[in-house]
Amino acid sequence: EWWLPEAPDRKVSGWLTFTVDDDAQLRLVGSFRDMQEEGVRHGEGAVWMTEDSIERAGSYPRILGRIGNKAFTLEGCHRSSLRRNLFGGPAVEVIRVDQVYRGVWYEPDEEGCGDGIAVRLAHLVYWLRPEALKEVSRWWLQDGQLLDEPVIEVAAKDLPSIVIERPTGTLKVVQQLGTKGDGIALRSITQDFVARFDTESVRPWRELIRPVVEFQDVVSLAMDRVASIEAVSLFHPDLVEERPNGPAYRRTIDVFAQWSDRAAWVEPKDLVSSDVLFHYQVIGADGLRQLLDAAARYRDELRRVSATRGGRTMYNS
Question: What is the per-residue pLDDT across 96-105, written as a single tens digit (0 to 9) for each?
Answer without folding.
Answer: 999 999 999 9
